[in-house]
Specification:
The chain is mostly helical. It contains 6 helices and 2 strands, in the order αααααββα. Strand 1 and strand 2 form a beta hairpin.
Amino acid sequence: MKPPYQITDKILKLVVSISEKLGEINATHLYKPPTELRKKNRIKTIQSSLEIEGNTLTEGQITALLENKRILAPKKDILEVQNAIKVYEQINSLNPNKIKDLEKAHGVLMEGLIKTAGKLRTKNVGIVKGSKVEHIAPSGSMVKGLMNDLFTYLKKMRTLY
């Protein structure tokens, strides 16, 4: 028996769109990893991200800080971890599509560590290893424009996919 309708391109596109939206809902609202797994992932992420920048705290020390326990470590390293924990607590209130929210997250991460926390860089910087310049970053005067270009590009990419 033949159905009393025809499956058109438009119907197929609508079915695909509905399926994608159901997948998004399932992914963001229904699946929640166990609390302990989320905590372990947070600790590993904080430790590995900060280790790249020279932070010496171990996963055990970061766990202790999360549990409001005291540890022996360099004050700067402790502050970096405490700031990262604060950002994690605020992450759901930040919009990844807004430069202002990126600056807000930067302000929390760098609070007490640098004077310009929460502001885009305006000075020139580079990486020096020994007596050799390894990398020169874009000029400080270019950063705001480059960040605007990046966010515009990301917005464009989101509309394509």
